[in-house]
Amino acid sequence: MIRIEDTDRVRILTLDRPDALNAFNEALYDATCEALIDAAADPGVAVVVITGTGRAFSAGTDLVEMAQRNSGTFANGKHGFPGMVDQLAVFPKPLILAMNGLGLGIGATIIGFADLVFMSTDARIKCPFTSLGVAPEAASSYTFPALIGRQKAAWVLLSSEWIGAAECVELGLAFKAVAPDDLMPETLRHAKILAAKSVASLVESKRVLLGALGDQLDQARARENEAFRVLLGGPANIEALTAFAERRDPDFAAVDAKATTPNPDAAS
């Protein structure tokens, strides 16, 4: 589910569901959350690196479990998505991503909580929220405009289009794009430079950096949670998940047309 390795005060967390493209089910959300809690409390850990196994960094939330949530047969984990995002938002030590492959959903919006992002030149991201009939998540409605500006963030968050590694660097979503074989060596080279510093200094430096955000992250997440409450399980979301299961493109125009068609019974 998740592999943990320590080297020179750097803790590497490797998402390990390659058959599911490292998609986050409740078990992986819980395991990652617990790993972040442990790393934050461990005085021997100065820096954390998150990467993935196989050809994906993470395909985001497991759509099978999303469909189960809509059907009422879903069992929440101990921490789940909200708990993991809580830990990302308050993680006190430098957090680095080594994005080895595709990142969708939380596999992309996690960028907003990272202090440094390295991407394989083969990697690409997608924020697929509008293609799933839902809304942005994980405070990305705040973090992405803060990182890259409103118009660029609007395209990334609203288009559900793929964004390649080179474009992520150009936009400001990633620090560097490197050849696949160089991804972990280059990431760890930077991580070990940071890890050689005082942990107390790193923590306080990150604290003052994040302090400038104030309560903007919490406010963004509250707005996003309300949008998800309205949209999750709604007609567009059901059409998107049905289309995914049937291996076809969703027909949102038909959903929208049905929503705006007057109900003849309503007038009687």
TrEMBL record:
Domain of life: Bacteria
Entry keyword annotation includes Electron transport: no
Keywords: Isomerase, Membrane, Peroxisome, Transmembrane, Transmembrane helix
GO molecular function: delta(3)-delta(2)-enoyl-CoA isomerase activity
Primary site of residence: other
Subcellular location: Peroxisome
InterPro entries, A to Z: ClpP/crotonase-like_dom_sf (IPR029045), ECH/Chromodomain_protein (IPR051053), Enoyl-CoA_hydra/iso (IPR001753)
Database matches in Pfam families: ECH_1
Chain segments annotated as transmembrane: 95-118
Gene3D superfamilies: 2-enoyl-CoA Hydratase, Chain A, domain 1
The protein, known as: Enoyl-CoA hydratase-related protein
